[in-house]
Amino acid sequence: MGLGLALAGQVYRHPVTLVTDPGLEPTIARLLTAYGARVDMVTEPHPVDGWQQARKDRVAELLAADPQAWNPNQYGNPDNVDAYRPLALELFGQLGCVDILVCSVGTGGHSAGVARVLREFNPEMRLIGVDTIGSTIFGQPAASRLMRGLGSSIYPANVDYGAFSEVHWVAPTEAVWSARHLAATRYASGGWSVGAVGLVAGWAARTFSPDTTIAAVFPDGPQRYFDTIYNDEYCVEHGLLGGEPPTEPDEIATPTDAVVGRWTSTSTVVNPTLAVA
Fold first, then answer.
1. Tens digit of pLDDT for each residue in 30-73?
2. pLDDT for residue 277 is more than 70
3. What are the two backbone dihedrals, phi and then psi, of residue 142, each rounded to the nearest 5 degrees?
4. Is the pTM of the predicted complex or chain greater than 0.90?
């Protein structure tokens, strides 16, 4: 999204400031600067809600300091959801009715937007959400998260909880293995989200009948992750080369039954903000 905003800034001649944290891949920070964006790096996580809340707090400070500034608010902006209609129509045009859609979940935009349109053609379509361990989106407690692009330490308003049939949490070691396995065997791969989604989509392909049409959204390619997922030194430093993951997830009845630390799924999907209320 940051790269897209930098491009929009060039096209419309608007200055762009992107607030991020030290977890941003170094190649992305260099690209953003090269494309003319200003990178504003927060230095300390929020004591409760982590880096994500620290970034939101910094954005609020910048907005308060400049009355002409605007925040696209990808967590709650309905345009985030609506913008995925063309992608959904492209999927339908190429695949026909989709029976199972597998999406990573971060802001909630593409899972909500693509599923909404595909269900116009197949109301019975199953939506499988893919999250990361340590993410609070689906009711797990917040914890330090290594993976970027999926997961959250806040509750994005764009997440359509009622749309999901089930959710899977994936650990970084499992996402790394999957991303590298895709690269080595399919000549196609990507980052954290792609590795996690690929793992779950492969399970779905093995689990459901052969005539099931499964679509899995891969948000990007591998180029931005040469310093992380595809860097042996980085992976060894973070203990990410743990070998092949299991062929199927652990299962829990509800998201609060256990704190998950590896690939785990549940068919009970609830909005944790309503559950708390």
1. 999 999 999 999 999 888 878 888 999 999 999 999 999 999 99
2. no
3. -70, 140
4. yes
With 0-12 CB in 10 A as exposed, 13-18 as middle and 19+ as buried, what is 186?
A: exposed
Closest CA to 50 of 175, 106, 134, 140: 134
DSSP string for the chain: -HHHHHHHHHHHT---EEEE-TTS-HHHHHHHHHTTPEEEE--S-BTTTHHHHHHHHHHHHHHHH-TT-----TTT-HHHHHTTHHHHHHHHHHHSS-SEEEEE-SSSHHHHHHHHHHTTT-TT-EEEEEEETT--TTSPPP------SS--SS--TT--GGG-SEEEEE-HHHHHHHHHHHHHHHS---SHHHHHHHHHHHHHHHHS-TT--EEE-----SGGGTTTTT-HHHHHHTT----PPPSS-EE-SSTTS----SSEEES----HHHHH-
Half-sphere exposure of 255 (CA within 13 A, CB side): 25
Could you tell me the two tokens for 8?
């929009």
pLDDT tens for residues 10-23? 999 999 999 999 98
